[in-house]
């Protein structure tokens, strides 16, 4: 006995990962403030698309020092900081009704 089955349907849920990375000479005053400002715009855009706050989850937040490479004559030197903020967004997708399947 052999059989074959196939089902086609449009997805109704999506998970999207997004983030913002900023760099600046100081961690708190510049890099963190710039990152927070940009993430505020990301959240506003998501809400405008209809994503509710409970479906937005922080998946990563890092503040990392940035250095020059240095060499035998010059040691590594701190040049600034990089802030990375990532979120995962889960939401119901609003698709138009699917057309006929083949």
What is the SS-derived class? alpha+beta
CATH topology: Alpha-Beta Plaits
| Share of helix, binned | 10-25%
Average of the residue pLDDT scores: 83
User: What count of structural domains?
Assistant: 1
| Spans where pLDDT lies below 50 across 5 or more residues | none
- How many E-type strands? 3
Distance between the termini: 25 Å
Question: What amount of the residues lies in strands?
Answer: 35-45%
For the sheet with most strands, the description reads: 3 strands, antiparallel
Q: Could you tell me the radius of gyration in angstroms?
A: 22 Å
Strand order of the largest sheet: 1-3-2
Put simply, the count of helices is: 1
Order of secondary-structure elements: EHEE
Using the 3D structure, state the CATH architecture: 2-Layer Sandwich
The best one-word shape is elongated
The CATH class name reads Alpha Beta
Q: CATH homologous superfamily - what is it?
A: Protein of unknown function (DUF541), domain 2
Describe the structure.
This protein is an alpha+beta fold and 102 residues long. It has a single domain (14-91), classed as Alpha-Beta Plaits (2-Layer Sandwich). It is built from 1 helix and 3 strands; from the N terminus they run βαββ. Strands 1-3-2 form a 3-stranded antiparallel sheet, covered by helices on one side. The chain starts with 12 loop residues before the first strand and ends in a 10-residue tail after the last strand.
């Amino acid at each position: 006995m052999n059989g074959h089955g196939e089902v086609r349907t449009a997805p109704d849920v999506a998970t999207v990962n997004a983030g913002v990375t900023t760099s600046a000479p100081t961690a708190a005053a510049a890099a963190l403030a710039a990152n927070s400002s940009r993430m505020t715009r990301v959240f506003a855009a998501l809400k405008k698309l209809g994503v509710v706050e409970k479906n937005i989850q922080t998946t990563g937040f890092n503040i990392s020092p940035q250095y020059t490479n240095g060499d035998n004559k010059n040691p590594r030197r701190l040049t600034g900081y990089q802030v990375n903020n990532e979120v995962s967004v889960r939401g119901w997708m609003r698709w138009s009704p699917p057309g006929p399947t083949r």
